[in-house]
Input
Amino acid sequence: MSGKAESVRQAAGAVAKPGEDNTKVKKLKIVGFLCNWCSYAGADLAGVSRMQYPEEIRIIRVPCSGRINPLLVLKCFQEGADGVLVSGCHPGDCHYQEGNLYARRRMLILRSLLAYFGIDERRFHMSWVSASEGKKWADTVRSLVEDVRAAEAEVKAGVPVW
Amino acid sequence: MKDSALRKAEAIAQKAASERQKVADRQKASERQKAALRKTAADLLAQKAVDLVIGYGRSSGGDVVPLFVSRVEEAQALEWNQHCTYNLVCYLTDPEVVGSLERKEKSKAGKAETRAKDADKAGNARPAAGKVAIVVKGCDLKSLVVLQSENQVQRERLTVIALTCPGVADETGRLLAKCEGCPPDVYNPRGELCDLVVGEPVQRPGGESTGKQSGGPLSDPENQDSTYCDVEEIDVLNPAERRELWDGYFARCLRCYACRNVCPLCYCKECVFDQHDPRWVSPAAAVASNRSFHLIRAYHLAGRCVDCGECERACPVGIPLRRINRKAARVVEESFHFRAGLDPEAKSPLVAFANEDPQEFIE
Output
């Protein structure tokens, strides 16, 4: 548990070092939680197929999307992430039969509570990406980055993400 | 002219008289109910059916306070009036109450052998040990149903005394918001969920089976808007407005945890907010950590909260906590067609799933 929280902190804080040129476009910090069996393999496939997609996502591999405690997502936002992605196997494909179906319910509630508190919904995405969907993975990250940028554009000056 | 003025005055006088009569009637009914409650509690204790009755009493200052009765003669101190707002169900999982009952039971077990012999001689049943009776209103009963569905109470060791309830009020005598629109099957508790119902069935104006409360029958979609109108008010705002609204409230939060401590459904031995490793949410009272606290609190109550309103009542800085919990309840109701507190056999929606669960938000 503590190891997971630590890796969240590292992933979220791993950019925006002093001296970097961030005058043009703000470098986004986006954390992706990918299940080991489908989405992580899908992202790997995108990599070995040399598909181009934004590098602003930092991936944390988890055993199953059902492993993702909403506290992990909040921790990302608290530590300065601009967006969070949760990705797992398609329904019916879960390595543990039903972990992603629990995750689906959890993330639905988390997402609506985030929106209720005025956190832009576009900052939190969930996707189903299978091990063979390298292209879908690249598309997912692209649309996620676009969405987070759009949310950033509407933020009033001085209002932090969290 | 004179006649009509006279008639008007007469009508007003009549109305006032009938109002007075109504108040007097209500008071009398409440007195009768109190007497019946005291007798019920005294009987249970005298028959040794229970060791402890958890109910309402009066402090030396005259305020209504929780009262723990373990002797027959103390049962006369039990109270019932419109200020009995507390949800006493939170004491059923309270470590102190549970611990003291366990200690009592242990000390009894030592004497049990000799007593069993005596009982056999007299032909009586062995008296029960560590059994509790609890006084609940209909709305509190729903939180007990959730505890039961989560295996947090031993129902067979519990005697539930439900009171028919004309509604409870704040210090100024104004009816609580949660009581407005409370459905009849809640303020006149159903017999199958409790052991004893004390009091005559109550007639209440308005709220006739509107199902406005989370304990009412599952509302049809047409009814939905009026059911969650307080949530809808915030839902229609744009994200920036919602952010501003809630951040204003969260800036006030002291992180005193009164909302958590008073909640009958917060019974974890170690709360995530008390954990040091990992430290999920900073204990400092800042807007960012307060937002996390309230979001996770609502998340942990999603599909469980029965809207008893205790958190909002206990909040010293007036954060509208019911509106947060009711948002989660609305999402659960609309997405998973579930309402908490109706069925002790039902599984909480977050430890279940359905293949047809909505997933429009997933890419």
In short: The radius of gyration of chain B is 24 Å. Residues 123-128, 207-217, 219-225 of chain B have pLDDT under 50 and may be disordered.
